[in-house]
Design brief:
Blueprint (H helix, E strand, L loop, with lengths): L1 H16 L3 H61 L7 E5 L4 E5 L4 E8 L9 E2 L8 E3 L5 E11 L2 E10 L1 E5 L2 E9 L5 E2 L2 E12 L8 E11 L1
Parallel strand pairs: 5-8, 9-12
Antiparallel strand pairs: 1-11, 2-3, 2-10, 3-7, 4-6, 6-7, 8-9, 11-12
């Protein structure tokens, strides 16, 4: 309706400005083409913007998964290769969002907020199918998982977890654990710094009753 009104008004103006039929015809053709182009651009924007937004949130999700996997890889490397406290340090830039340390669950939590839905009914495992709090030696010590939430007002939260659990070995009869240690600053939006904070052996404190070897990793969100 708006396009028809636009064309009718344009015709009246053209008849006033261009008395001859040939001039009117050429001008009307130009106005019609312009009107159609304007309509198509508006239609493309109304359909295309949601698709662009959805593609953007999927890109954010993929980038976040890669970030969490890289973070886990570096923590495991430091825990397994460093020999003395303060000897190893690594920093990783945060793509966007906020990262925090949860000492009660021995986890790192990474949160993004978006205006497009990516909601899950349950928490999804991203790097293993084994979600046991204690697993056998040889499994991944860090479990990466994801949950999407609707927080209202057209906004959604993407939450990624990196949680470390005890791994048990029968030969030798020991447990192994990466223990995250926090700093005064519990969250950050710029980068996360991880460093080796030494190790210890606690006698008889493994899940199966053997000794447990604990590798301490300091976590500093910035």
């Amino acid at each position: 309706m708006r396009l028809k009104t636009f064309i009718k008004q344009s015709q009246n103006i053209i008849m006033f400005m261009f008395p001859s039929k040939k001039a009117q015809s050429e001008a009307i053709t130009l106005v019609l083409v312009a009107g159609i182009v304007i309509g198509l651009v508006g239609l493309a924007y109304s359909w295309g913007k949601p698709l662009i937004d959805k593609r953007s949130v999927l890109t954010d999700y993929t980038t976040a998964v890669q970030f969490m996997k890289e973070l886990d890889k570096k923590i495991v490397e430091i825990a397994g290769s460093c020999s003395s406290a303060g000897s190893c340090e690594y920093s990783l830039n945060i793509p966007k969002g906020i990262i925090s340390f949860d000492d009660t669950s021995n986890s790192i939590v990474y949160i993004l907020t978006t205006n497009q839905p990516l909601v899950t009914k349950d928490t999804l495992l991203l790097n293993t199918a084994d979600n046991n709090t204690v697993s056998k030696y040889g499994e991944t010590p860090g479990v990466i998982s994801f949950k999407g939430e609707n927080i209202g007002s057209g906004n959604y939260r993407l939450i990624f977890y990196l949680k470390y659990r005890e791994l048990d070995s029968n030969a030798p009869f020991k447990g192994y654990l990466i223990k995250l240690k926090g700093s005064e600053k519990k969250d950050g939006t710029s980068k996360i710094i991880i460093s080796y904070a030494g190790s210890q052996v606690n006698t008889g404190e493994a899940h199966h009753g053997g000794d447990i070897v604990i590798s301490n990793i300091k976590v500093q969100p910035v």
